Amino acid sequence: MDHEIIKHAKNENWDICTYGLGYLGKRLYKVIPDMLGLSAKYYCDGDDSKVDSIILPGMKGIHKEDLIKTESPKIIFILVDDPYDLEIQKMLAVNDHLHTVTLRELALMDDVIESFYGEALYKKYKELTDYSVEHGGVHK
């Protein structure tokens, strides 16, 4: 994932959408965008009946086919487990306006790591990764 995309989304006020209305999606639809200073406007799922029947406060449901056809740039947070996240990411890649972020990508982002662990533990984490890289380890 290109971290610059998140900056563009903030600066240009892109729409944010969460994808997935299962266990993870219903628990993380607000938390994940908030960690990055964003607010989701839409939610989606591969099952349109879930989109029609589930209400997430302050958000609008959008059917998968309508999302795929969108003509404005959007960040899509894919809030489903492996391996389904990669299938969804591939499906949405047909539209260049849709910029996807999976949970596995989020887990590697410094902003998310710091938000999750707090500033003090994040500093220790960075020291460890820097030390590891200096001494032959690999940091992705």
What is the secondary structure topology, with strand pairs?
Elements: H1 3-11, E1 15-19, H2 23-28, H3 31-35, E2 42-44, H4 48-53, E3 60-61, H5 64-68, E4 74-78, H6 84-92, E5 98-102, H7 103-106, H8 110-117, H9 119-134
Parallel strand pairs: 1-2, 1-4, 2-3, 4-5
Descriptive notes:
β4, α6 and β5 form a beta-alpha-beta unit. Helices cover about 50% and strands about 15% of the residues. The relative contact order is 0.16. It has nine helices and five strands. It starts with a helix and ends in a 6-residue tail after the last helix. It is elongated and about 50 Å long. α8 crosses α9 (about 120-135). The longest helix has 16 residues, at about 120-135. It has helices at about 5-10, 25-30, 30-35, 50-55, 65-70, 85-90, 105, 110-115, 120-135; strands at about 15-20, 40-45, 60, 75-80, 100. It has one domain (about 5-110): Rossmann fold. Strands 3-2-1-4-5 form a five-stranded parallel sheet, sandwiched between helices. It has about 140 residues and is of the alpha/beta class.
